[in-house]
Design brief:
Elements lengths: L11 E4 L2 E4 L10 H5 L2 E3 L2 E4 L2 E2 L2 H14 L8 H14 L5 E9 L13 E8 L7 H6 L1 E10 L16 H12 L4 E6 L4 E4 L3 E6 L2 E5 L8 H12 L4 E4 L11 E6 L3 E8 L2 E2 L4 H13 L11
Length: about 300
Amino acid sequence: MTAQTFDDRDGHIWFNGALMPWRDVKVHVLTHALHYASSVFEGVRCYNGKIFKLEEHTERLFASAKMLDMEIPFTPDVLNKAQIEVLRANNITDGYLRPIAWRGSEMMGVSAQSSKINVGIACWVWPSYFSLDARLAGIRLQISEWRRPAPDTAPVRAKAAGLYMICTLSKHAAERAGYEDSLLLDWRGLIAEATGANIFFVMDGEIHTPKADVFLDGITRRTVIDLAKKRGYKVIERQMKPEEMLSAQECFLTGTAAEVTPVREIGPYKFTPGDICRNLMADYDVACGKVIAKDSAA
């Protein structure tokens, strides 16, 4: 059976200020973003009808656009309301939203100051990024041959489309080799992140995570750090060398798609998902509204 493609679906997409039938939304082949990667986007989750961290995601979308010299022609409030509108129009209560802004087809060349900035918002039902069995057992990561670029070579703190090509290449290579994902180092050879998620290590009861100085400081990353501190765990953000993974007992990824996912293997390094992983998985599921806290009123 052929899988349903993303250009041929029922439903509606918010496009430049109005809801349109899904199949009617078109982008020309000479759109600047297609040729020069001039687009920024967000990945947003909705649980039980409520969008998680909506304002934070929209704020980051505008910050990313500014880094790419793009001025979004709508206010954050308009885009927040549009995302709620899209969910209702598609009758989705548990799903994934994709707001995106990109340069259009008015100019074709590296210089594109006069190109229109377009904005679209789509949503769809999307289960966990990794299967439940894989999450509970811990996933396996390959160490990528690609590295995160230095901050003076790319807008590394933007959630920009072009920065994800090395993620696609890394994930393809990992999956061909039988892994679920890949770990990228940065240009210095320090631990950076997975292809679409931040990474944490548990070392002797303390949680260590790479300092987000050359990659995206994830919204889920910040959420999980807050949840860990509420539990009394010590969280240390610092630069980390790959060989330090030898000293870690637990490891997990965090991200809007990945949520909180334990890791059992990264290249030659092995980990055992334990209490800290399980506690933070449970805490995050409550915080984002995926499940209802046990002590909540019925």
